[in-house]
Specification:
Shape: globular
Helix content: over 70%
Largest sheet: none
Structural class: mainly alpha
Number of strands: 0
Low-confidence stretches: 1-7, 45-49, 180-197
Mean pLDDT: 77
Number of helices: 7
Length: 197
Amino acid sequence: MFRLLVFSRYVTESRVLLAQSFLYSAMLVLTSAAWLGLIPSSFIHRDGENIHRWSCVPKQFWLRHEPLCLTLFTRVLPPICMVISFMFPMWVIPTTSHPMAAWAVFLLGSFSMLVTMTILLHLEFRPVLTPWILTSISLLVMAFPFYSNGIVRMLSIFSYGAFSTPFFWWSLKTISMAPSTNTQGKDQASIKRNPSD
């Protein structure tokens, strides 16, 4: 009887969570297939030296403000996308969902969005997925059932937060300071022109 009441309580939210899980899984599969070349996509396999062609910015405006546009698309956009990858799945999950199901869908959604962001923006997987791994471990730390009392639980969570903060900072700094392909190409061209330097 108790299980029937619990099931009937979460039946509406479970449909929403199943739909979100399907969408996140489909996005992850399609993006990975395009990245592996199973699906032809010129946007995934774009030329890094012509960012204005895929950035939806008019060419004249890009040429006039090229340093600003490069900074926005290579330094500012990746950290913002990473924060949105965590905020959006958490925002769309119903607040009355079962905690275990909600956290599972949140982790799936954030993982799929982070992988999609990594592939589209040509970033490294390690700094992008580091916050996701730390977030997953933090859930295990908070849900650990064998704490002796609340003080030990609070100290454990605080200690893990202090431990993981430098890794979060490293991840954001690495993503925001990642050199663009265009800049690397210009640097290599200048080196070839001036071999004496």
